[in-house]
Each structure stands twice: as C-alpha cells, then as structure tokens.
Amino acid sequence: MEQQKPDGILEHAPALRRYARALTRDAGAAEDLVQETLLVAHERRSDLDPERSIRGWLFSVLHNRFVDAARRRRLEAARIETMAETAIAPQPASPELSAYLQQIAERFDALPDGQRAVLHLVAVEGLRYQEAADLLKIPVGTVMSRLSRARAALRQEGTEPGQSRLRVIGGRDDG
C-alpha cells in the first residue's frame, strides 16, 4: 500500500492522471506532467490557502504547467520556422570539392590537440592571438608557434610531386 503524505497531495494523483491524459492525449506525457505537478505542489504546499480546496489547487497547477509547456513548444516551433525561412539553402558541392573538404577535415582531425585548438580559435572563430592565449591559458608565443606548426602540417601532409598543394588562408604557400 502506498504511503500517504500528511498534506494529502498524493491522494489526488489518480484524478490528476486522468486530467493530464485528457489534456496531453499521451500516457507518457501525462505521467510526466503529473510527476512535475506533484513535485511543484509538494515544493509549494506552503503557498496553498487553507480556505482553498487542495484538489482544485492541484488541478490548477497541472493545467498551468500544461499551458506553459504548450506555449514553449509553439514558440520554439515558430523560432525554428523563422530560422528555416531565413536560412540560405546550401548548394550541393561538386564531388571534387567534397573530396577536398573531406581531406581538409581529416588533416585537421589528425593535428595534435593543442595545434587543433589554436588553429580553430584563430582561423575559424577569428580570435586574436592574445584572446586565444588567454582562453587556453598559454603564452601568446605558444599560440603563434602552435598555429605555425598546424598550418605547416596542413600544407605538407599528403602532398606529392605533381599534386596541387593545400592553400591555408593566413599562412604562407611558398614552402
């Protein structure tokens, strides 16, 4: 037998479950809503007016939680729709470009952690050397050294005579 709390909140759980199922039309979502309602009710039981029915108060808490969740879902859906409308549709890349980008990603992933972090912060995120140094808690000279070695590794790796070399923006291409 389930133990009852002295404040009488749990005795209303079956009625709350029925109401939650009617609102959500989903047993799992209804159970989540009831659990959230019971938790909120337990935490805020001191707010309950002694003149008010605990049952009515619990139904009110459940209803308000349901309405708030529905409102959040609608707002999130509207934000996603707005973002989708304003986003520029990506153009399909040619097979050559796709292979080239895959090669760059593999080379980048093969870099040591320190070099990869510095290259990402400076080349991708656009941080200044000092900002990257502060973020990584290393001297600015170490940032410059790691960046130089990372760029050199990206340029040199996989280049054989007659192959076109990878051009690294912000670095030097003249060997």
CATH class of the largest domain: Mainly Alpha
Instruction: Characterize the biggest β-sheet.
Output: none
The CATH topology of the largest domain corresponds to Rna Polymerase Sigma Factor, Chain: A
Give the beta-strand count: 0
The average pLDDT is 84
Question: Could you tell me the strand content as a percent range?
Answer: under 5%
- Could you give the order of the helices and strands? HHHHHHH
**Uncertain regions: pLDDT < 50 for 5+ in a row?**
1-6
The global form is: elongated
Report how far apart the termini are: 80 Å
- Tell me the CATH architecture of the largest domain: Orthogonal Bundle
> Helix amount, in percent?
55-70%
- The tally of helices reads 7
Based on secondary structure, the structural category is mainly alpha
3D architecture notes:
This protein is mainly α and 175 residues long. The protein folds into 2 domains: 10-86, Rna Polymerase Sigma Factor, Chain: A (Orthogonal Bundle), CATH 1.10.1740; 95-156, Arc Repressor Mutant, subunit A (Orthogonal Bundle), CATH 1.10.10. The protein has 7 helices and no strands. It has helices at 13-24, 27-43, 54-86, 95-110, 113-124, 129-136, 140-156. The model is unreliable at 1-6 (pLDDT under 50).
